[in-house]
Amino acid sequence: xxxxxxxxxxxxxxxxxxxxxxxxxxxxxxxxxxxxxxxxxxxxxxxxxxxxxxxxxxxxxxxxxxxxxxxxxxxxxxxxxxxxxxxxxxxxxxxxxxxxxxxxxxxxxxxxxxxxxxxxxxxxxxxxxxxxxxxxxxxxxxxxxxxxxxxxxxxxxxxxxxxxxxxxxxxxxxxxxxxxxxxxxxxxxxxxxxxxxxxxxxxxxxxxxxxxxxxxxxxxxxxxxxxxxxxxxxxxxxxxxxxxxxxxxxxxxxxxxxxxxxxxxxxxxxxxxxxxxxxxxxxxxxxxxxxxxxxxxxxxxxxxxxxxxxxxxxxxxxxxxxxxxxxxxxxxxxxxxxxxxxxxxxxxxxxxxxxxxxxxxxxxxxxxxxxxxxxxxxxxxxxxxxxxxxxxxxxxxxxxxxxxxxxxxxxxxxxxxxxxxxxxxxxxxxxxxxxxxxxxxxxxxxxxxxxxxxxxxxxxxxxxxxxxxxxxxxxxxxxxxxxxxxxxxxxxxxxxxxxxxxxxxxxxxxxxxxxxxxxxxxxxxxxxxxxxxxxxxxxxxxxxxxxxxxxxxxxxxxxx
Length: 560
Fold this sequence. Notes:
28 helices, globular, alpha/beta, disordered N terminus
């Protein structure tokens, strides 16, 4: 009996010891899956490498989404169903629609439009779905200020409608609360479910500096906050001198949820073109200010409508319904006629695209706008650039009559240049003569005109070159020569005249300007050896012996 009891006690003890050994393995939690840190390295790798150094395997897995040489790398990541816990974007940001590199050898880029498409479309459910944090290493990525001028335009429109400026501002704040123009709002809409989005409210540090700041932060504070989705006060403090800030995505509710819904009407690839056009129609039936805030997206959509797409039955029906909407037409055209010229041009183009204006009516609207511009007392380079750009195909020639500006407006070079853009030969001669002007602002207007309407007639080019050669040596003559450099001169007579001027002028600035013309010119008509001899024997001493464009021209001539 004692043996049996002893055996039972022994067996029970052995079992208990076994349980003690088995229990830790049985009760241990399964190993946590590694966090996936996705990187979009368009520019500097400094930030990515610091994260990689302090977030090692096996707890973290790094995936670079950019595939060098493949333009559709973001779509490729979507197709591979990459799922990111953390996203790091290293790139310069233009404050509007493009992340870009600063090195010429890097061709990759990323647009906000692509991010919107990936965020809204069912074709890419994985990349952004599980994000806890986003790091945007680019200037103004979380700038809360409106990046466009639409807000001011909307206020002016509301005042024209009879509201007081104070009430107009109040309505604008309500409108902007739902349709923010800022980079911060756009990023919040794209990363709508992300609890922590880091970015810069103004100028961001360059890659090496950002990398050093990150390294100091991780050494001091560790990495326990990374990927947690909780804003890190210590990280913000580490970048406090650079304006690092943090925001949360819009979520399913809140002021910007409606804005995201509207944004996705344009970006979602699952929606047909006809469905998107129907939404544009709905948008144009609201206050025009709302459509103005979406004008870039509307124009990108309209740009996809080639003739084949327009012939699709559903698209044709949507365009026909939009074209018949007389009330929306009237509202948009009234708004366009009262807003600034650059936006007016875009809205008039939209009106033609949707069938509200025939080609002849569109031309008449542009001509009326140019006449209004011409009637202003003060014009500058922007108005001249606009007039020449609009009349690139010469269909607006004669839109403004010949002669002096209307009463009350000065008949100066900018007015003449605008008329020259619209085909007036006498005003062209007057504008080209302004290239010789001692007034720098007047000369810049003439240069702006010349970029759009270069000299192609040999007699006209020779007359201008002779007039420049007769000018007094100095800064004015050098500036006039810089205008010639933009023409890529190939006329032998003009080039030989420049060689003579190089030999005779006492001005280093003028010689440098002549070298600027010659380095861009077609020099096949000039003996290379004679030109090298002239440049080396007749050049004036450069200040402090600086290596300048004359040296660059000599090196170019001596190269095989």
